[in-house]
Amino acid sequence: MEMHLPPEGGYDELFDADNKIRPHYQVIHDWLTQTDDELIAEKRREADLLFHRVGITFNVYGESQGAERLIPFDMIPRIIPATEWHILQAGLRQRVTALNRFLFDVYHDHDIIKAGLVPAEQVFANPQYQPAMQGLHLPRNLYIHITGIDLVRNNDGDYYVLEDNLRCPSGVSYMLEDRKMMMRLFPELFTRCAVAPVEQYPAMLRETLQASTLKPNPCIVVLTPGRYNSAYFEHAFLARQMGVELVEGADLYVHNNEVYMRTTAGPRRVDVIYRRLDDAFLDPLAFRPDSMLGVPGLFAAYRAGTVVLANALGTGVADDKSIYPYVPDMIRFYLGEEPILKNVPTWQCRKPEELRYVLDNLSDLVVKETQGAGGYGMLIGPRASREEIERFRDAIKARPDNYIAQPTLSLSSCPTLVDEGIAPRHIDLRPFVLTGKRIQMVPGGLTRVALRKHSLVVNSSQGGGTKDTWVLEDSEC
Amino acid sequence: MLSRAASSLFWMARYLERAESIARLLDVSLTAALMETNSDREQQLIAPLTISGTTDTFYELYEDMTAQNLIDFLLLNDQHGGSVFSCIRSARDNAHHVRGNITADVWESINSSWLDMKAIRQRGVSESSVSRFFDWVKERSHLFRGASYGTLLRNDAFRFLRLGTFIERADNTARILDAHYHLSTSLENTESARDLFEWTALLHALGAYEAYQSIYADRMSSENVAELLILNPDVPRSLRACLHETAELLAHIEGDAGRAAKRLATSLSANLRYGDRQYIADRGLHEYLTDFLARINQIADQIQNDYMGVA
Asked: I need a surface site. Which of A192, A285, A290, A344 has the fewest CB within 10 A?
């Protein structure tokens, strides 16, 4: 099959700067160039059919209710050599540890604020800060049991953390289904490459949730907003894989500050809720009164310590984009270590001198809303029209504290099957980090790919797809 | 298990069983209609509508009672809940709701039925291709049963799913038998060849033709057919077999919640187990079946009331 070379100046995962094949991609490269086009097309159709049958779909907000779309799957894997992964793993462990310490601190003694490293208003005036969490003791002082850290690789070949997802990060089911699909379609590739397994994730998640409470043999449930939620497939998938109940708000109720689920054999006490519902919807008595998705009284039960929520309430204060620039300082402050993973340099529009720089350089920068997620509310300067830039300029001037700006990183590219053949497309990486008695993660994570040429937006809601992510157990493949 | 999940599993299985029954019902009517003169032909065609109580809905949507209209209405129409299309859609909806409680195999069998169903609806089904469609429905139904039987853990989820199957099946067997008994006594043309043809078609549709032949080795008679489909414990679609399963399944469900449902099911099951031809003949088949239908619906309501929080 024809293989298009990456444009100069970028970082490609398969070709190096001299367009030579990186050693860990040799097997895949040879396989791609030697395999018959028709066979590849056939495998691609087979993958589509299988995904449809399995029903790995997601719902897109704004489209008619219940409209299910298939998330595009690309058959060419993203490969990470073992040595690189070891560094990433150490960096992720360090970062998640510091973020958890930060959450404990902002809901207890505020040491980092007293030390003058993070401004008080950045924390306490943040809409994601939950005053009701102040002083609450959680088992093992754990706030973020499940995290997804988004990484990208820049031109310089280094990985950068793009954002931390500490609320309900999703995508792990795609990671697992993509692997299952690859093994089904191309078993022979797995015999030629030593790919580190990821199938243990549900068992690790279960272990993590069990460790989130001090109660022995806890009753664990997965709480979903329901089947019209964009990630419903994943909620059901994880519940089934862990062998626990998938519940909706209406299946639970609170009695005497304890949470119960309605079962055919009567009420059953619930100890741990892996909730895939945002804070605001969890309890209509404590938060949004119009929410039909939550459980009245849940927050009181949580405060009374009879039930664990994973992740804890109020973790959004640490993954907000306005807090992001402080993460390297958190690592130094709490752990006394130098950060292993790099942060993207960030201008905070709330600071007048940085705002001036941002406004002067809008066409070169990426501007993001501090509360935004899913690729919405974002300006990519070099790709934007003049009107878009002016619209953002007005919005930033009106509420500077709502925005941050970063240089335009050029995400690394990876060969991807597209209409014109095999061509480079930009990718990111979301590894999932689990924190219980210890920190665990499966090698790799979810690789998202921007299927449109030159696009840097990898979100599935904006035309992104996924790839299987291979961490090699040997340095070559 | 969760009450909501129990309800979804119960209805998922009911809808799939119903889809199969509609196909079987229409199959027997279309076959039997081939034998009839014009006036009786319409009576035969209308039978599935009478049985499913959708005659009025049909005439709201179509002017003429033709085989093609009937096929569209009972198999593909999405405007009412009584078509195969709607049943498969509802089954898939319910399955989607309880994905956490069923295996990937069961989910995939239902989901791909739904995907195929949508494609079939696009293409349409004609009188000449309808028997292929019946085969397809039966095949999908067998696949679902095989996947659930072969992969589901034998827990309450499995029991609620099977309950849905047997309650729906008992209901359908009773209705189809009642309707055809009524037809065979009311049609003008009552010569025995026609009778034979009609009962044979019915037995074929219920997959009980071979059973009849091996048990009776006798001329086709409505009494024999009724006995086979009501009292025989070994015919999978017989009322006795369905009620035996229903009572057994209920007995094994955890907890005390379902006492009322268990009592009703056990009593109806005993009634069938110790009933005989004479008892049915004395009461009259139609009266017997009418009473049975009332009781099976009472059991279904009680199950929902006891376990699923539906009053």
From this structure: A290
Cα angle A454-A371-A97, degrees, rounded to a multiple of 5: 95
Domain A345-407, CATH number (from 3.40.50.300, 3.90.1640.10, 3.30.1490.270, 3.40.50.1110): 3.30.1490.270
Residue type, A6: P
Q: Which residue of A has its CA nearest to B160?
A: A264
Q: Nearest Cβ partner of A245 from B100, B103, B111?
A: B100
Give A245's contacts in chain B (Cβ within 8 Å): 1-2, 5, 100
Report the domain count for chain B. 1
Q: What is the pLDDT of residue A291?
A: 78
User: Which residues of chain B make contact with A236, given a CB cutoff of 8 A?
Assistant: 99-100
- Facing A264 at nearest CB: one of B1, B97, B115: B1
Query: pLDDT (tens digit, 9 = 90+) per residue, B218-242?
Result: 778 888 999 999 999 999 999 999 9
Q: Which of B1, B4, B161 to mutate to test the interface with A (most CBs of A within 10 A)?
A: B4
| Residues 6+ positions from B256 with CB-CB distance below 8 Å | none
Strands (E), A204-248: 220-223, 245-247
pTM across the whole model? 0.83
pLDDT band at A370 (very low <50, low <70, confident <90, very high): confident
Q: What range does the domain containing B271 cover? A: 3-307
C-alpha R_g of chain B:
19
Q: What's residue A420's pLDDT?
A: 85
- CB spacing of B101 vs A266 below 8 angstroms: no
Tell me how close the Cα of B54 comes to any Cα of chain A, in angstroms.
28
Minimal-distance CA residue of chain B relative to A243: B100
Whether A460 has a pLDDT exceeding 90, the answer reads no
Instruction: Quote the pLDDT of residue A62.
Output: 45
